[in-house]
Design a protein that fits this description.
The protein is α+β, with helices and mostly antiparallel strands. 30% of the residues lie in helices and 35% in strands. It contains five helices and twelve strands. The strands form three sheets. Strands 3-4-5-9-8-7-6 form a seven-stranded antiparallel β-sheet, with helices on both faces. It has a three-stranded mixed β-sheet with strand order 10-1-11, with no helix packed on it. Strands 2-12 form a two-stranded parallel sheet.
């Protein structure tokens, strides 16, 4: 099949605890959907906190669009009686600097050099071989306040540490790279979120459709087995 004349469909399971963050659309559409999202996620919290979360998320959207993000989701859930939060993003970007057959080895070398403190390894997924990265990102919070006031997130010397796992999967159209990322500032819930993320990346399904158009992501709802595990994990 001529991959240049077909559309690559990308499907993956989104855990039901994660609410989709609006990334695409007009400014008015994004603002309206963002406020609806924050009101749903923070239904029991005052408007002042909702506004702070909405502003913080809105500031991330331009950079997400620039990075090729095709899907973003966030959760604010109760774990063992305390609030916890995490985000999942998926982005598609050009595959540059290497050819497709050597892409994973190239990515492993490049990521290891660029992030020497991170854990970088190759993994085998049903959708193909990929490069995985586990890292911690430190962000200084100058005024000591964050939009995460609804979550007990500790700051150490004014620094917020976020745990991150990424999977970089070269796509079979041989010209693009899919990157899925999970991040959370709640280190105590890392094992829970990383297990959920493993379900997400194992669910990736790639298929060429005989349509003369560009790549287009499609999202499946979570299957029943995964749904039950998520519900059990979040009580």
């Amino acid at each position: 099949m001529d991959h240049t004349a077909t559309r690559l469909q990308i499907r993956f399971v989104v855990p039901p605890a994660f609410h989709e963050i609006p990334v695409l659309g007009t400014d008015d559409q994004v603002a309206e959907e963002l406020w609806e999202l924050v009101c749903e996620v923070l239904a029991s919290h005052p408007d002042e906190l909702r506004v702070r979360w909405a502003v913080a998320l809105a500031e991330l959207i331009p950079s997400m669009a620039e990075a090729g993000v095709i899907h973003a989701g966030m959760c604010l859930v109760d774990v063992d009686g305390r609030p916890s939060t995490a985000t999942i993003t998926a982005s598609v970007c050009p595959l540059v600097g290497t050819d497709y057959p050597n892409a994973v080895d190239f990515l492993l070398t490049r990521l290891a050099r660029a992030r020497p403190e991170a854990e970088v390894t190759a993994i085998e997924l049903p959708a193909g071989r990929a490069a995985a990265v586990i890292d911690a990102v430190a962000t200084r919070v100058d005024d000591g306040a964050t939009p995460l006031d609804a979550v007990a997130v500790p700051l150490v010397d004014g620094v917020l540490t976020t745990s991150v796992v990424q999977v970089h999967l070269p796509l079979p159209n041989e010209s693009q790279l899919l990157m899925l990322e999970l991040s959370t500032p709640c280190a105590e819930d890392w094992e829970l979120y990383s297990e959920l993320f493993a379900d997400v990346v194992r669910s990736i399904h790639l298929e060429f459709a005989d349509l003369p158009t560009l790549s287009e992501p499609l999202y499946d709802t979570v299957d029943e087995d995964v749904a039950e595990r998520v519900k059990a994990a979040f009580g």
